[in-house]
Amino acid sequence: QVHLVESGGGSVQAGASLRLSCAASGRSIGMNGMAWFRQAPGKERTFVATINWSGEEIKYADSVTGRFTISRDNAKNTVYLQMNSLKPEDTAVYYCAVDRFGMMETSRQAYTYWGQGTQVTVSS
């Protein structure tokens, strides 16, 4: 079992930056791909970014490419999401999850052990 805890969310103005963290406990995630998803009020949970176990392969949603950076520190069992140039449309609860199959898919069904989420609110 893996327990994931997201943190680092907050309320910011458009153009600001935030750094989200996803700390894992229970076992190492060092050999697992990881991903960030987000869910805006009344909308489905959507893919944001994914990173493979080594950090050498990364994929982003088009909407965040160039603004967000996913990274990981396997020694700390933690995954990060650096979010720059935030926009009001980035407002959502952000979740991290473990890649079930290591295929770096964008579908939420490919992921498991979801955290409780951290709220990000961006005002204009």
Summarize the structure.
This protein is mainly beta and 124 residues long.
Can you tell me about this structure?
The protein has strands spanning 3-7, 10-13, 18-25, 34-39, 45-51, 58-60, 68-73, 78-83, 92-99, 111-112, 118-123. The protein has 124 residues and is mostly beta strands. Strands 2, 4, 5, 6, 9, 10 and 11 form a 7-stranded mixed sheet that branches. Strands 1-3-8-7 form a 4-stranded antiparallel sheet, with no helix packed on it. A hairpin with a 6-residue loop joins β5 and β6 (58-60). The termini are far apart. The model has no long low-confidence stretch (mean pLDDT 97).
Question: Low-confidence stretches at least 5 residues in length (pLDDT < 50)?
Answer: none
Number of helices: 0
Mean pLDDT: 97
Structural class, judged by helices and strands? mainly beta
Rg estimate, integer Å:
13 Å
Helix share, percent = under 10%
| Global outline | globular
Secondary structure blueprint with pairings:
Layout: E1 3-7, E2 10-13, E3 18-25, E4 34-39, E5 45-51, E6 58-60, E7 68-73, E8 78-83, E9 92-99, E10 111-112, E11 118-123
Parallel strand pairs: 2-11
Antiparallel strand pairs: 1-3, 3-8, 4-5, 4-9, 5-6, 7-8, 9-10, 9-11
